[in-house]
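seq:
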Amino acid sequence: MAFNSIVSPKTQMAYCRNAYSAKVRMSGKHLRQDVVKSSEPTQVQIIRLVLNGAPKPDAAQKILLDAFKTWPEDITARFLMTPGGMIEAPWPKEFKSSTGWDSQPEDVKQLVTLAAEKQLHKVLTPAVLKAAKGKTQWITLGIDVLSEEGLKKPHVELVAVFDVAQNKIVGWTGKSFPTASQAKQLVQVSDLGSHFMKLGNQQVLILGCNDLNLFSPRVAALVGKNTPRGKMVMQMTTLMKRFRPTVVLQHPHATDSPNIWRGAWCHLQNMFSHVNVWASAIRYFNPNGKPRKPQLKVLQQTQSNALDVFDMEMDMTRYTSKPSRYMNSLKRF
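struct:
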């Protein structure tokens, strides 16, 4: 059944109920008893690092190393997902970039070279990569490049895809669709084609935080077709029909309620039947107060199937870091 342009949350829930299955959860080497162990490693599509608590960007290398050290011996994954802003890189001094709807692909490329790539290699140390081998094929890492002023100044929100076996970065993309409050200061990833990647034998769509709302029926109803937002929505729909991805990976910075993304996920599934595996990376955190919904509900309703997606929960209070520039500025924005 297809969505109309505006669908109530109650109706969305009815359409999507069958997509939400019971959650299989992991913590270190301990699987719940409802997961059957076998002598051969079980390969799942996605393992999400579920980061519980405020971002700790300075501790990204330690978080990854701890995750791989406590990885279950009987599980391998095609994709290891981390949330948006897992890593933060300082904005390059003296670098001036076009922003907003004037953003240019060349600016994004320079920010990758001048800042993001350097910071990524500081996190993916030889020790981390050695620990990762045999556990996952690709790692998706959210990397923000921003100054001390955070969202008030030019910034870019990137996602890197790292191939563990080949020991190299195989793709860069990032947020294309800005929130209303950051429309003037975000360096948008204006090349929407960068979101589509062939990884192994799968066509994969990699989304930044708010990019999932390119599929939101409410957004489609509110923006005019000839506005910059409307044109981007139509361009993404055209690319989806051309590339026909089977896997969609979204990288939000923080999710404390599944309602944030429910409408867009439901609409995407109904529009594009070729998508059969999907997930939002999860940092379970609300910068403005207590989380609004229970964590288990968030995990259940932000992934395609319990057999596709497993979660490794990690407690961020164990790690030390300077405060996230992104999250600090979000509180004041």
